[in-house]
């Protein structure tokens, strides 16, 4: 019996030694990432975990290129204890810190030992502290002089950090350790800042977004140099992992979508086909030489470094001089570096499904079909205003309200004829901005191109806009509409309409109400055929030109009516007309308005149409300010009498002219 027991012990010892030998033969990366979960409860794993805790600096990070599982002598343990307070060598390069935290998470999942949890959270605090204000991370923290301070995408350093933060932020259970609420807020903020940094560092080549460098200057965000053979360049490998990270975002913003689409276009443009990497080995399996050889129908590869100016691949030895071919550099660098990569193929393979999922997400059903929220950060039902409109019920019986959170929405928005009873309500007038930059020559659709340049187009009846900035940002480049309204019973309240020529196209045969708005422009910046009442608005002229260009139909009772408005202008502007007739039956009236000194004494212009002097109706009543000079007005304009002015009431201009107990549309705002 004793003999059998001795044999069993011997077998167990031999088995344990063999298992340890197998572990020690592997790399630390393999052990941290590929071990079966149950192994992390073993005595062997706990022994390795002691090393991991010992290597961690007091600041929270770990050094790189350390085989954490290798046995440590007592002298080495003492050295590591002495290094702890210094923080020296702590980094996220080559997977350091991230893989140690992953290992500790697996240990905690199996053992629930608090020391692993505390070490993990200490590592998390380290990552949060190391982040720059602009959202990037250096290669080393505490900061180490040299290129190590650059924002580091090299070897996926920053992407690895972002992946860890993403899992914690999304509470995916990938990591067994949960941050506190205060830490989680910091994690979310750090992740969002990181995405912002990624978007800001994407390199523009001749104004077109392309990809990223392996490292970017931490101050200017421009591509930066690292080691002597790692010059500023566009990187195929690191850029691919960045794009895959962006593609994993749950509700990507317009900027993220544009970034991904641009990078994919660049990957397609710079891929290399028809060549294959070839390696020459010696007798013991070591690489002796690398070269590129022609090969038909070979899968695509991408150069590690490409010129910022023209995307041409280049190669570099330790002398820091660019070479055009791999053959031109020395054996040591040629054989000891990955000059070509195929990582971008992962992006190209995933891209079609990503596009499809994006389309599906844009057509999801909101929680409340009558109260929809749009938010750039993904916290609402939609990130796009147009997606929200497209998914509303057609011809609803009840009013649908789309609440738009603060943000800059660069999109061309259309409220279709089948979307009546719709309200677009911004969170705040100055910070909820819808902007686009189409203009006449850019659209290029012939003589009617103006009407396609809108930023926001309203074709439906009973639409209400409030607390929005609607902007055509194209600049002073000719006709460029910000807001275009064709329909009936449309109210625009407390909004800013920004542009230059043709800012507001108030047209159609319907009734429109503009209240407490700011409207700016250069030439004819309020134009069209609608019956429109402007009340308590500021009308701001940016240039010596014309404010209105009405095209009122012959049979309309009213055209444009301005009541209690202020007409202001840029400094140095002093030759502005109240209006000119786009069509000869134009009607425009100013009542109780304050006219700045920029308004010309003559007031009105006939647009070189003498016949319009007999058919237009341009009039004023009790205006004030330096620009109100009734005795000098064009002889064919009018100064209304009191009884004539009385008819310009809200009810007369916008009402249905019928008796009813039901509130009119403009009374329910």
TrEMBL record:
UniProt-recorded name of the protein: Pectinesterase
Biochemical pathway: Glycan metabolism; pectin degradation; 2-dehydro-3-deoxy-D-gluconate from pectin: step 1/5
E.C. number(s) listed in UniProt: 3.1.1.11
A Gene Ontology molecular function term of the record: pectate lyase activity
Reaction(s) catalysed (UniProt annotation): [(1->4)-alpha-D-galacturonosyl methyl ester](n) + n H2O = [(1->4)-alpha-D-galacturonosyl](n) + n methanol + n H(+)
Signal is among the record's keywords: yes
This protein's UniProt keywords: Aspartyl esterase, Hydrolase, Lyase, Signal
Entries under Pfam families matching the protein: Pec_lyase, Pectinesterase
InterPro entries (UniProt xref): Pectate_lyase, Pectin_lyas_fold, Pectin_lyase_fold/virulence, Pectinesterase_Asp_AS, Pectinesterase_cat, Pectinesterase_Tyr_AS
Domain of life, source organism: Bacteria
Active site, renumbered: 524
Provenance organism: Winogradskyella litoriviva
Signal sequence residues: 1-21
């Amino acid at each position: 019996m004793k003999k059998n027991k001795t044999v069993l012990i011997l077998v167990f010892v031999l088995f344990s030694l063999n298992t340890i030998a197998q572990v020690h033969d592997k790399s630390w990366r393999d052990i941290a990432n590929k071990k079966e979960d149950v192994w992390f409860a073993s005595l062997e794993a706990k022994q390795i975990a002691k090393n991991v805790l010992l290597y961690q600096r007091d600041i929270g990070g770990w050094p790189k290129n350390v085989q954490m599982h290798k046995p440590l002598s007592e002298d080495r343990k003492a050295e590591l204890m002495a290094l702890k307070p210094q923080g020296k060598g702590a980094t996220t390069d080559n997977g350091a810190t991230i893989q140690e935290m992953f290992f500790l998470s697996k240990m905690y999942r199996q053992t629930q030992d608090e020391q692993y949890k505390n070490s993990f959270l200490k590592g998390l605090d380290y990552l949060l502290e190391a982040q720059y204000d602009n959202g990037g991370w250096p290669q080393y923290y505490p900061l180490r002089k040299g290129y190590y301070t650059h924002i580091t995408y090299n070897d996926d350093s920053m992407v690895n950090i972002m992946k860890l933060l993403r899992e914690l932020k999304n509470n995916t259970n990938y990591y067994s350790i949960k941050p506190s609420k205060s830490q989680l807020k910091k994690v979310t903020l750090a992740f969002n800042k990181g995405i912002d940094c990624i978007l800001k560092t994407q390199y523009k080549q001749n104004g077109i977004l392309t990809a990223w460098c392996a490292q970017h200057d931490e101050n200017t965000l421009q591509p930066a140099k690292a080691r002597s053979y790692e010059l500023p360049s566009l990187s195929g490998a690191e850029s691919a992992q960045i794009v895959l990270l962006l593609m994993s975002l749950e509700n990507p913003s317009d900027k993220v979508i544009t970034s991904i689409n641009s990078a994919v276009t660049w990957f397609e443009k710079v891929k290399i086909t028809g060549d294959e990497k070839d390696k020459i080995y010696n007798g013991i399996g070591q690489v002796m030489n690398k070269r590129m050889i022609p090969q038909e129908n070979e899968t695509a590869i991408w150069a590690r470094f490409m010129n910022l100016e023209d995307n041409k691949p280049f190669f570099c030895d330790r002398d820091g001089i660019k070479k055009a071919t791999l053959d031109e550099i020395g054996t040591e660098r040629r054989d000891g570096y990955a000059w070509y990569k195929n990582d971008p193929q992962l992006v190209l393979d995933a891209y079609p499904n990503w596009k499809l999922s994006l389309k599906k997400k844009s057509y999801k059903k909101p929680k409340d079909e009558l109260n929809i929220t749009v938010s750039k950060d993904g916290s609402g039902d939609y990130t796009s205003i147009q997606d929200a409109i497209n998914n509303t019920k057609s011809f609803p019986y009840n009013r649908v309200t789309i609440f738009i959170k603060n943000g800059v929405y660069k999109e061309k928005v259309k409220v279709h004829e089948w979307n009546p009873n719709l309200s677009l309500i911004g969170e705040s007038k100055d910070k909820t901005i819808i902007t686009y930059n189409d203009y006449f020559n850019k659209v290029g659709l012939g003589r009617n191109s103006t009407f396609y340049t809108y930023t926001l187009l309203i074709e439906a009846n009973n639409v209400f806009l409030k607390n929005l900035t609607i902007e055509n940002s194209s600049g002073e480049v000719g006709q460029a509409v910000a807001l275009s309204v064709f329909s009936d019973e449309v109210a625009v309240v407390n909004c800013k309409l920004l542009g230059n020529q043709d800012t507001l196209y108030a047209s159609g045969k319907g009734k429109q109400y503009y209240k407490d708005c700011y409207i700016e422009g250069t030439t004819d910046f309020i134009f069209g055929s609608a019956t429109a009442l402007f009340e308590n608005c500021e009308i701001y002229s940016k240039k010596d030109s014309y404010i209105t260009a009405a095209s009122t139909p012959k049979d309309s009772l009213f055209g444009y009516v301005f009541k209690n408005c202020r007409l202001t202008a840029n400094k140095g502007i002093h030759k502005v007309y109240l209006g000119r007739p786009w069509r000869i039956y134009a009607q425009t009236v100013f009542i109780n308005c304050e006219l700045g000194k920029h308004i010309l004494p003559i007031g009105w212009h006939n647009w070189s149409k003498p016949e319009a002097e007999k058919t237009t109706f341009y009039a004023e009543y009790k205006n004030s300010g330096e620009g109100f000079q009734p005795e000098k007005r064009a002889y064919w304009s009018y100064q209304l009498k009191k009884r004539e002015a009385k008819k310009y009431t809200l009810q007369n201009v916008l009402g249905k002219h019928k008796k009813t107990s039901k509130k009119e549309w403009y009374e329910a705002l």
